[in-house]
Amino acid sequence: MEFKLNDEQELLRDTIREFTENEIAPIAAELDEQERFPEELIPMLADIGVMGIPIPEEYGGVGMGNLDYVLAVEEISKACASTGVTVSAHTSLCCWPILAFGTEEQKQKYLPELATGQKLGAFGLTEPNAGTDAAMQASTAEDKGDHYLLNGSKIFITNGSYADVYVIFAMTDKSAGNKGISAFILEKGMEGFTFGSKERKMGIRGSATYELVFDNVKVPKENLLGEVGKGFKIAMATLDGGRIGIAAQALGIAQGALDAAAAYVKERIQFGRPISAFQNTQFTLADMRTQVEAARLLVYRAASKKDEGGKYSAEAAMAKLFASEVARDVTCKAVQLFGGYGYTREYPVERMMRDAKITEIYEGTSEVQRMVIAADMGIK
Ligand code: CAA
């Protein structure tokens, strides 16, 4: 299978590459250093269509596919994984479930502002006791006739307090296990909806990760997303797509580290010659390139499978599992090629190494991806 980009895709990739080089790369180290969310980039990304690539034009999006979307996340993540996950969580975890499960009214109400970047999206599933065991939701949404009363909290929420629209999961029937979970659309500013602490993280420090707190939030009935009790399936289906976005982020991080290392080894002189002249360097870079290329094929394949329709859980899980492990390994090799300088903040590879680690953890750990892949083979 070969992925030959068409003219439109090449144009999209080149536009985002240029934007990333000019606007994101110069501030990536500062965002990490200061743990600063790059709010100013959102309208700029929106201007080049990045906030709504796979959303149909009728809902304000660009109307392109998932392969186009992963090209964007990959390009951005080459320079800044924090900005990459901001776009990925917004698109895959908030816009997509509204598009896939929302009523026509919900799509008309929320998607145009999300897809044009006037509003930012987030997704709240994880809780202190519901991480990998996502069905163990403690948040509750009590049916009060014309509204649901939402109580509880969510942790580790990407885009946290900077988002405007949230897809949130809570128990509507505690006795029904995962079939008692429902999904809701929340808006910033709803009474009783506040933000807890911001996480201080090892990597993706420019991404805003917050706790969300719900204290008797009155959620209008029309904000129920999908059917009552179908929330767990909505979450799982959403994460299938989210995992392709994170796989693309991991791919971008790995490519960024490979590019940085390939440039550095030509400049760095030791023993009277550039270290690129040593076979160890050549072999290491050859391995890194092969790993990145293999990851790219899996990521593009998963995105294409999603574009084709039908089930793509296993393809998404394989792409995320492989690309995240490649990102971890390739960034580590890049630091090694840089030697002592690679360990300093003078060069980007130590940041890339820290950023890579989260791709093996969020939106399902590597262990969860293996469970999904094995289950798809009928091995449970
Ligand atoms: N699509 C639709 N439905 C699905 C599905 C999918 N991909 N996967 C499972 N389901 C359905 C099953 O068919 C089953 O339905 P029935 O009972 O009707 O048959 C139901 O969901 C339960 O399935 P399982 O028995 O497989 O569920 P489980 O409780 O054993 O959990 C799990 C399986 C894979 C471990 C799952 O809990 C999981 O994916 N956990 C990880 C959660 C995760 O990725 N969290 C990340 C949160 S977001 C984030 O990281 C932050 C961020 O903002 C970036």
From TrEMBL:
Name this protein carries in UniProt: Acyl-CoA dehydrogenase
Lineage: Bacteria, Bacillati, Bacillota, Clostridia, Lachnospirales
